[in-house]
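User: For a benchmark we're assembling, each entry needs the component sequences followed by a predicted structure for the full assembly. Here are entry 17's components. Please fill in the structure.
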Amino acid sequence: MALEFRLMLFVIFILASLVIVLITAAIPAQYFWIKLPLGIVAIALNVLAVSTRYFTYLYEPLTRMKKRTIVIDDGEPYIMAPSGNAIVRREKEKVFATVFVKIPVYSSATEMEDQEKLDFAVAFSKMLSIMKEPFRITTQLYVLNKDEYVDKIRARLNDVQDKYNTMLEKEAQAGQQDKGVAPPGSNRLRGELTMWKNMLENVNRARGHSLSSFAAISATGGTEEEAINLALMKGDELASGISATYGIAAGIATNSEILELIEPEKNIPVANVSQSILEKSAGMS
Amino acid sequence: MDEEGLAYIGLTSMVMIALVLTAGSYGAFSIVILALGLLAIVVNVTINYADFIIFPLFTRIFGITTVPASKYRIPKSQDVIIKYVNGIYYATGYLTGNVYSYVFTSEQTQDDQTVLAGAMEKWERIVMNADFPFKMNVVAVPQGVQQYRDEIDGQRGYLEFQLSREVNGSNPNQMVVQELQRKLGVLQAKMDRISAGERPLNTIIYIESTAVGISEKEAVDNLSTQLSQLQTLFNSFDLSISRVIGRELYYLNVLNYRVFSEAELGKIFQVQR
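Assistant: Structure for entry 17:
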């Protein structure tokens, strides 16, 4: 439909340009003050005709332009489907739903033989041709939300610390420490405590990155429900194809998983941004 | 050159040539009309084949920014999309590159296989060396089998005609004959793969990265550094990567939320075959 509209505009502009050129050619030379602006209009229409090939998406917003800002869309770029397993985007009267398929591949080239590497690469190229319609495969490196991770480790550390303290108190009460023999339970807890302390230290020191892969496929429909159902059907087909190609369990991404794939602020959590700003200012001072 | 582009250029140029030919009737302004008509032809060709030059030039001159959606903004440079959330600027930019073209070639040699097997290690090295978020995207655009077969048949017929003309000529050039035979071999291999059930495929490959900053300038500067680093890192794949500027930037952002149809992709992007 958009393509037809584009061609229709092209025909209108090119015909208008041609008609004006012919009219100006017929006007006698002494009326050059009429001919010149008409000629310029013909040239402008001619350039507009070519621009219809790529820039029709800007035509309508251009008419609403305010203060040198072209607003193509002032709404949210998408909304999450009520079921949380797809996103919905409206473009004029059309509704598009997109489903994201998680691809849990944990293989590394370092642990593969040459033939396995080749097989993996060939499987990738085969995976690209499993659907009859376009889809996108993405591998993304994103920054982990360290705060969340650190909180988990800290909670675990506190838990173990409490258990260790309780055990020490019990041991002291039982007079076991006087005998100079540490019971196996406290040794294990001490070891676990050291492990969590080391982990917390390492996590605080290192940058946390994670790698994930996913595929995305879209469907269009007359209503949101129709588009979502069609997209989910295609998503399931895609997931089955990917699972069969790589021998993995690919599944449909939901809610927060989808947001991590499309929202930039989920790729770089605010906590990490503040930390990097602090690091920078510390480096400068 | 694509047929559609030729049609656009051909039709608009004819109108401009008509204008240029009648420029003499503009009296004192003949030169002005002549110059503007010729300039329009140049601008039209540039819009058709290099709109990434004309469009940002236009937005820079007139200081135009674009708002693709709520909270997003494309500044007049047209090379970055900025999102402003919770007092932080997130700048996203894109690179395009023909990374895996050799995966889809039909004439696989031992060398190609070595390159293919080495691609994984190169990829892992890139991931290990990149200290910032980025996405590597491959859009698979499957083609209709019959249409692809017809295309191959057409190409094969033309090559066979060239080959027979060369062979039956008075002084056949062995180099040309060999080259034509090689090309025919590639087409046959493609046909064999289609017959074996493989679906013909076009691809669009692009890399996306996001940088943050407490000011827009900081985020954009950080992004430029990241994209330069990615360009260097992906050089190990021996390919030319270029930054996406202009119209395609907007569409790549939309691609985050929906995958375009085959017809739309063919019109918007340069699809790799």
